[in-house]
Amino acid sequence: MFVKLGDSQTRRVAAILCVLGALSAGIRCVSALPTGAAVTSFEVNASKATVNETSGTLHFTFVTPRVVRVVFSPPGVTPKLQNFVVRQKGTAVAVKNRSNSEDVILQTTGMTVRISRAQGAVSFLGLHGAALLTEPSTGGHCFVQPDGHGAGPDPQQTFEAAAHEVILGMAQTQDGLWNRRGMPIELRQLNTQCAVPLLVSSKGYGIMWNNASLTEFNPVDRQVPLNPKKAGTFKPLKTGTYVFMVRGGDRAGEIGIKLDGHLIADIQNMWVPYTISTKVRLIAGRPYHLAIVGGGGGTTLWQRLRGHKTVFRAGTGNAIVYYFFAGPTPGGVIRSYRSLTGAAPMLPRWAYGFWQCRERYSSQQQILQRAAEFRTLRIPVDLIVQDWKYWGHWGWSAFRFS
User: Fold this and answer.
1) What are phi and psi of 177, to 5 degrees?
2) Where would you tag: which of 10, 103, 345, 398 has the fewest CB atoms within 10 A of its CB?
3) Model confidence over 135-166: pLDDT tens digits?
4) pTM of the model
5) What structural domains does the chain harbor?
6) pLDDT digits (tens, 9 = 90+) for 62-71
């Protein structure tokens, strides 16, 4: 089925595609046109739907009744999509067109997707019609031009986040943060840090961000001026919870943030990440002294209000691509993710016991002595990690032994 809107409906729209608010000060949305992101036409064909907007095209592909892939591309761009992790082949999913004069509505037996005809804003609803995830009312999919860092324009996707929502996942990090709502992460692979672009919400939905480039999750775009000693003063305009993030660390020894002389974030390790972030409640108009601890000479400090948004910004790409999982429970999200990306094999039974690991062992004798000590003390141990420098004269990381 193909539906086209009249010109008079399109002309009534005057808002731009995405309102980025406190989360995205200092960037420009470059894909939105002056007429806004009104839906101009749409087509539903079997398990797929195409929605044309004044700012680009949305493609919906239902993999299962509870899983949908969403792709947004600018006008005239046919995105070249590569799937490095998705293994599941989509089956025939019955999609009902329930559209009306206000919204394009796509319904399966497991979820409903609603797209505002006036603004192009996308919403995902559960089986019984409750909103699970929504874009801002003026839309949340666009390409942005960051000011100060990044070449751009970069794909950016913004959703609303409920005040009491708990968002889990996204990365395995050293910062100790549990709830990622409004908190920034650089999704990059490092020694001691693992990026996992999957979030699971306490509301029962999940998102897998499917862009292989360096991605900023909940980016921070307002820089705090610092002196050569990496210290400065910040005076908030509003009372509220503020997020601070250090970028550009040298990964050696320590990285942290001090507020009025007290550590509010700190990681000390042989290998630390390039970044660290934290949140703290501040009072409007009061000056606060901030300082970066460690991190080397190239670090910078950034801030914003925590706000109520969930934002993905990729470093490069000609399209926004993500998968939405309509749980309806966190366990349901994980099951759908596992089916989509492939079932991980179970480890052998012995691997679920205690692993002894340290920075490294310097000799065979040291490892054997440690194993003997465990036996003497009758402490169960299933594996001892030899770690690096096992390769001797064969060279760095060689899979050979003397």
Assistant:
1) -75, 140
2) 345
3) 999 999 999 886 555 566 899 999 999 999 99
4) 0.85
5) 2-162+203-213+316-341 (2.60.40.1760), 222-305 (2.60.120.380), 349-394 (no CATH)
6) 999 999 999 9
